[in-house]
């Protein structure tokens, strides 16, 4: 039978682990909430001409230069899967005219098209 001292030690370590884990989770959640509040979704009304140096994907959202994003649920057509766009060699050009539903990504001499769902 374990001694009371061993049980208290195990409980103290477990409590310390849970406390540190909770603090880290809360801090990371706050950091990510600030990040998500700072990026802008690309919509049909936007006009963008951007050299993309950084692209990443998270839960169906494709982020460009930590400034803009596209939601996979708002894409009605793409000449490539969003995951393939995520894997494009950087830098590449992202172009979109105002009041247009089409985004053009140009990498070397290839063009890739993304068509967004209407904002109506």
Keywords:
120 residues, alpha+beta, 5-stranded antiparallel beta sheet, 4-stranded mixed beta sheet, 33% helix, 34% strand
Task: Provide structural commentary.
The longest helix is centred in the N-terminal third of the chain and has 35 residues, at 4-38. The strands form 2 sheets. Strands 2-7-8-9-6 form a 5-stranded antiparallel beta sheet, with no helix packed on it. A 4-stranded mixed beta sheet has the order 1-5-4-3. By secondary structure, it is an alpha+beta fold. The N and C termini lie far apart (69 Å). It has a domain at 40-116. A hairpin with a 2-residue loop joins strand 3 (55-58) and strand 4. Helix content is 33%, strand content 34%.
Summarize the structure.
The chain is α+β, with helices and mostly antiparallel strands.
Strand elements, count: 9
Fraction in beta strands: 25-35%
Secondary-structure element series: HEEEEEEHEEE
Q: Describe the strand arrangement of the main beta sheet, using strand numbers.
A: 2-7-8-9-6
Question: What is the 3D form?
Answer: elongated
Largest sheet: 5 strands, antiparallel
Describe the protein's topology:
Layout: H1 4-38, E1 40-41, E2 48-52, E3 55-58, E4 61-64, E5 68-71, E6 75-78, H2 82-86, E7 92-96, E8 102-107, E9 110-116
Parallel strand pairs: 1-5
Antiparallel strand pairs: 2-7, 3-4, 4-5, 6-9, 7-8, 8-9
């Amino acid at each position: 039978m374990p001694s009371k001292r061993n049980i208290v030690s195990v409980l103290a370590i477990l409590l310390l682990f849970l406390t540190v884990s909770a603090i880290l989770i809360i801090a990371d959640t706050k950091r990510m909430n600030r990040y998500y509040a700072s990026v802008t979704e690309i919509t049909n009304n936007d006009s963008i001409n951007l050299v993309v140096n950084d692209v990443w994907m998270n839960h169906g959202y494709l982020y460009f230069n930590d400034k803009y994003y596209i939601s996979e649920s708002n894409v009605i057509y793409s000449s490539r899967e969003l995951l393939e766009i995520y894997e494009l060699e950087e830098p590449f050009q992202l172009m979109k005219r105002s009041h247009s539903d089409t985004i053009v990504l140009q990498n070397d001499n290839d063009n890739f098209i993304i068509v967004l769902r209407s904002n109506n």
